[in-house]
Design goal:
The chain is of the alpha/beta class and 254 residues long. The protein has 9 helices and 9 strands. The chain has a single domain, classed as NAD(P)-binding Rossmann-like Domain (Rossmann fold, 3-Layer(aba) Sandwich). The structure holds NADP nicotinamide-adenine-dinucleotide phosphate (NAP).
């Protein structure tokens, strides 16, 4: 493990959902720090472009695997291959996810189930394997992109929000179990951020800059923070939203 100033820089990093806008911006920072990266994404062309860019930016090592992360049966072999390729692992970063179609999910269980599977079941499968790997070594960081949307269900996106609420609660419990074993579990809760996921949303030009979000994530991983709201103002905003009485909240159009 290398160090810059007082901050430890993790060297061997696995990125699941590496073509995500937030993940790509985060990897660009790690590449300039000379990290070794194992990138997993389902779109081979996008993955090849991202990995070439990260090599050019200074990554010490980049290897990739194409995988649909909905296929939980493939996770153990995929993760073992990544660890083998990197020759160990310091940080696992989970970034894949879908917003899904809320209106359709209100009518069709299969649409809701797909959102819950991709955003909750698949991360639970990945994190279960990774937690056991890191606990055996009594070291490591598991950093997962959840969302402020998981802090309170809202009519506009409660299926996505509930997938993230489940994920955040799972990570809380996992942290409670394995922090004492030397493993950091970081729950990342971004507010609306400018990426492909949000580009069609009203007001998206005012959303957070993805590079600023990525910088805060890298710092939180280095400092082994438990929960990161990013940008930081989402922490007090969500505190207020969580405490609005239900009799008032149910009448709001959020
Ligand atoms: N942007 C925001 O405002 C925001 C706010 C809070 C939380 N988040 C969370 O942050 C994470 C990253 O989001 P983003 O904003 O960077 O969105 P994004 O650019 O749309 O990235 C989402 C990524 O997930 C990948 N993915 C989806 N399903 C997959 C699957 N089954 N297997 C493999 N990869 C899959 C997508 O791959 P393809 O390119 O192949 O589709 C894409 O690379 C997500 O978990 C999201 O929920 C985002």
């Amino acid at each position: 493990m290398a160090t810059t100033g007082n901050t430890a820089v993790q060297r061997k990093i696995l990125v699941l959902g590496a073509t995500s806008g937030i993940a790509e911006a985060t990897c660009r920072i790690w590449a300039t720090q000379g990290a070794s990266l194992f990138l997993v994404a389902r779109n081979a062309d996008k993955l090849a472009a991202v990995s070439a860019d990260l090599r050019a930016r200074g990554a010490a090592f980049v290897d990739t695997a194409v995988a649909d992360l909905d296929d939980t049966d493939s996770h153990p072999a995929l993760l073992a291959h990544a660890v083998n390729s990197l020759g160990g692992l310091d940080v696992a970063y989970l970034a894949h996810g879908i917003l899904g179609d809320q209106t359709r999910a209100e009518q069709e269980f299969n649409t809701a189930a797909h959102i819950l599977h991709t955003n909750f079941m698949a991360p639970v499968s990945l994190v279960t394997w990774l937690a056991n790997y890191f606990v055996q070594r009594r070291a490591g960081v598991i950093a997962v992109l959840s969302s402020v949307a998981g802090d309170r269900g809202r009519k506009s996106n409660y299926v996505y929000g509930s997938s993230k609420a489940g994920l955040s609660a799972f990570l809380d419990g996992l942290r409670n179990r394995i922090d004492r074993e030397g493993v950091t579990v970081l729950t990342i809760k971004p507010g609306p951020t400018k990426t492909a996921m949000t580009s069609a949303m009203k007001g998206s030009e005012k959303f957070a800059d993805v590079n600023a979000v990525a910088k805060a994530i890298v710092t939180a991983i280095d400092k082994r923070v438990d929960t990161l709201y990013v940008p930081f103002q989402w922490q007090p905003i969500m505190f207020v939203i969580r405490h609005i009485p239900e009799r008032v909240f149910k009448k709001l159009n959020l």
